[in-house]
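Input (structure):
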C-alpha cells in the first residue's frame, strides 16, 4: 500500500487533519494479526509520507458481522465505530458517503476499501473541485481496475510492515478516546441510544432486538424504477434506495464508456 499512497500535494495538506474511513468488512484484520496495531500502522505510514496534522480513524460496516473481540481491540486504540445499513461497496462509494463527514477545510480524507470496478466520468472533476476548496483525498490503491485479491494482499503487507516499531507505538500511544454511532437507528431512537463512548453500551445496542429489526427492514430494496416505498419513513431509508439507483445507473452507463460518444 505504501508504494501507491501519495505524499501531501501541498503544505496546506501536510498540516491539515486527516480523517481515515476504513471499510472493516472488505478489508478485515488478518487472521492472527493483533487488531490493536491497525491504528498505529495507519498513523505511522501517514506520518512517514509527511502528513503532520491530527489523525482520526473510523471503521465502517455492518459491525454485527465483525467479531466482537476485533471491534473491542480496535476501539481500545482510539478507532471509532460506525454501524451502517450496508457495508460500502468500494472506495468510490465510501468516498461519497464519507465526504459529508469531513472536518471543514483544509482537511484530508483517506478511504480504505476495495478498488472500484467502474469509475464515473465525473469523478476527476469532483476531486479537482474538492482540492480547490482545500479538501484532499488519499487513496491506498491506484484508482483503477485491480483484482480484489491483490488489493487485500497489499493491505496485509501494509499491516505487517515493521511490526517491532508498531508494538512500541501501540504501548506508547493509545490515541484519543473513540466513539460509536449507529446510522441504522439514529432516525428512530433518542440520541443517547445511538451514540456514545462506552464500548459495552455499543455492543448492547448492536445486538438489541430493535436494532436487528430496523436493520432488516432498511435493507429490503425497492423495485427498480418504482417509487421508493420507504421514503416516507426516514431519510436514511431513502438514502439506501438512492444508493441502489446510483449503482444501477453506473452499471448501465459503464459499457457506453468503451465506445465513442454520440453526437
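Output (sequence):
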Amino acid at each position: 500500500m505504501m508504494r501507491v499512497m501519495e505524499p501531501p500535494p501541498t503544505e496546506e495538506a501536510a498540516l491539515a487533519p486527516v480523517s481515515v474511513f476504513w471499510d472493516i468488512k472488505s478489508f478485515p484484520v488478518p487472521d492472527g494479526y493483533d487488531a490493536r496495531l491497525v491504528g498505529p500502522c495507519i498513523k505511522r505510514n501517514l506520518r512517514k509520507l509527511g502528513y503532520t496534522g491530527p489523525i482520526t480513524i473510523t471503521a465502517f460496516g455492518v459491525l454485527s458481522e465483525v467479531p466482537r473481540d476485533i471491534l473491542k481491540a480496535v476501539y481500545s486504540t482510539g478507532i471509532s465505530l460506525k454501524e451502517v445499513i450496508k457495508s460500502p461497496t468500494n472506495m468510490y462509494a465510501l468516498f461519497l458517503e464519507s465526504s459529508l463527514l469531513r472536518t471543514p477545510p483544509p482537511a484530508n480524507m483517506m478511504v480504505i476499501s476495495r478498488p472500484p470496478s467502474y469509475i464515473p466520468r465525473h469523478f476527476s472533476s469532483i476531486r479537482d473541485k474538492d482540492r480547490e476548496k482545500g479538501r484532499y483525498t488519499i487513496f491506498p490503491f491506484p484508482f483503477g481496475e485491480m483484482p480484489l485479491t491483490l488489493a487485500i494482499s497489499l493491505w496485509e503487507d501494509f499491516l505487517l510492515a515493521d511490526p517491532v516499531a508498531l508494538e512500541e507505538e501501540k504501548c506508547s500511544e493509545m490515541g484519543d478516546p473513540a466513539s460509536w454511532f449507529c446510522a441504522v437507528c439514529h432516525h428512530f431512537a433518542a440520541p443517547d441510544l445511538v451514540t456514545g463512548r462506552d464500548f459495552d453500551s455499543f455492543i448492547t445496542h448492536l445486538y438489541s432486538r430493535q436494532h436487528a429489526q430496523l436493520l432488516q427492514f432498511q435493507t429490503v430494496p425497492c423495485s427498480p424504477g418504482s417509487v421508493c416505498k420507504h421514503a416516507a419513513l426516514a431519510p436514511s431509508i431513502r438514502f439506501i434506495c438512492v444508493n441502489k439507483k446510483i449503482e444501477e445507473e453506473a452499471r448501465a452507463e459503464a459499457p457506453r464508456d468503451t465506445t465513442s460518444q454520440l453526437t
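Notes: Confidence is low (pLDDT under 50) at residues 231-250, 257-263. The beta strands are 18-23, 55-61, 80-83, 107-112, 135-138, 180-182, 195-196.
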